[in-house]
Amino acid sequence: MRNYSRRDFLGTSVMASTIGLAMVSSLMSCKKKKSLQLLPMPDDAPDGKKLRAGLIGCGSRGTGAAINYLEAGPNLELVALGDLFDDRLQQCRENLKKRKGIEIDSEKCFTGFDAYEKVIDAGVDIVLLVTPPAFRPQQFEAAIKAGKHVFMEKPVAVDPVGVRSVLINAHRADEMGLSVITGTIKRHQKDYVETYRRVYKGEIGNIVSGNAYYNQGKLWHVNPRAEWTEMECMVRDWVNWCWLSGDHIVEQHVHNLDLMNWFIGHHPVKSTGFGGRHRRITGDQFDFFSVDFTYPDEVHVHSMCRQINGCSNNVSDLIRGTRGYTNCENTLFNPDGTVKWKYPLTQEQADDRWCFFWRAYRQELVDLVTAIRTNQPVNEAYNIAESTMTGIMGRISAYTGKTVTWDEMLNSDVHLGPKHYVMGPVDVVKVVPVPGQ
């Protein structure tokens, strides 16, 4: 087992580079002031000129995002597909034909590490980025430079270098009048949005603490095959490798961390955490994390996430204020636990507790198309970059067992993964971190 130093995880200063701490901090601060500017969130996007989209990343979530886009409003087309693997692409084509009755021209179907470039160049207006997070910064940069509107799934990077790249290209998107919507579904869920509005207006007083939980069983893994290269084995098993997913505190728990940043109105200034690995059978990640995030004014958020079968599950959030608390989703409570306010539900909504959740996936694309057709650009890249960096800070704190600060993260040159993507051996360290070493 390799002994890691704190420097292995934090890297060295990048202040001499063109993307220094001051510049990145400025980009965040100018876009992250807490405000009540909420999206209109119509049920359907308005009609308008035809919009053509290309999908990059044809797995189950990518296919779902493509269908969400096609159902977001009238006069929308999906015209190009790209994926590293042909079998995933063909499965996506078949699902689209079966579920939506469309057939993507084989000349607009691309595979390989450069597939994203070909999709972007296939005459599209919108790019849907749904590949593993490691590839998101590079693909986002290419899409923005080509003048495309973007939907991209969370998280948007796996390391500080990637986060900074996303921030710079978010700024470019602003300058070009482009819209960017991200997979932070809670920001597109009507009950959460109304709860946020009430917390913002002070109905539970000043926020003093929070709890964020994403405790569940194992996700999935893919066993390697003899005919696959090491790169193919790792990418097909991407959710278990830190350089590809960012570890599950970044890849999955980012939903909760984004919610905390949103409601509190700021990112944490430091984190101290721990974690470990007990039962994960592949990859190099931890399977549990517990992190104390410190926000301005000594507001503390306890973050806990776990992916282990056979344990008590809990996916929830809690924010306490000086005059009450909230589950952040649909209810405000008085200090004594009695209900102060509850989101009004129709009988149909009350009978289906997941109705808002599943609707939010479609709502993300409704909001993107609406922003484009009303010429009112929306850019969520700053929010998700900040929340991604929050997860990265917590991960590095747990990996090292040390307190890590926000400024160290913004100023770190840590980059995970190989420098070049090719099918063959993968030049990354494949060991599990040991805290305290």
What features would you describe in this structure?
The chain is an alpha/beta fold and 437 residues long. The protein has a domain at 19-187 and 363-380: Rossmann fold, CATH 3.40.50.720. It is built from 16 helices and 15 strands. The chain has helices at residues 6-10, 21-31, 60-70, 86-100, 115-120, 136-145, 160-176, 190-200, 230-236, 242-245, 248-251, 254-264, 347-351, 355-373, 381-400, 406-410, and strands at 51-56, 76-83, 109-111, 126-129, 149-152, 180-182, 207-216, 270-276, 288-295, 299-307, 314-321, 324-326, 331-333, 339-342, 404-405. A 9-stranded mixed sheet has the order 14-13-12-11-7-10-9-8-15. A 6-stranded parallel sheet has the order 3-2-1-4-5-6, with helices on both faces. A hairpin with a 5-residue loop joins strand 13 and strand 14 (339-342). Helix 3 packs parallel to helix 4 (86-100), helix 3 (60-70) crosses helix 14 (355-373) and helix 12 crosses helix 15 (381-400). The chain starts with 5 loop residues before the first helix and ends in a 27-residue tail after the last helix. The model is unreliable at 14-19 (pLDDT under 50).
